[in-house]
Design brief:
Radius of gyration: 14 Å
Largest sheet: 3 strands, antiparallel
Number of helices: 0
Order of helices and strands: EEEEE
Strand content: 35-45%
Distance between the termini: 28 Å
Helix content: under 10%
Length: about 70
């Protein structure tokens, strides 16, 4: 998500780059990405699985996520 600039107005959301699978296990994967190169401050990321939010991360904490219990 990005920081709201004015009430009701959001800038175009920059996309992370280099999305990749870092490790694949039997029923889980670790995905990672690089932050977007943009002047728009990114506060965090939402990781979606099957069109639903699976987890969120803060931009200053990490740029990877563990996705478990997948087939």
């Amino acid at each position: 998500w990005v920081e709201k600039r004015r009430r009701g107005e959001f800038p175009s959301v920059p996309c992370p780059t280099n999305l990749r699978v870092e490790k694949s296990l039997t029923n889980s994967v670790i995905i990672a990405w690089n932050p977007p190169s943009s002047n728009i401050p990114v506060l965090g990321y939402q990781v979606l699985l099957d069109h639903s939010i699976y987890t969120t991360t803060r931009a200053n904490e990490r740029t990877r996520a563990l996705i478990e219990n997948i087939n």
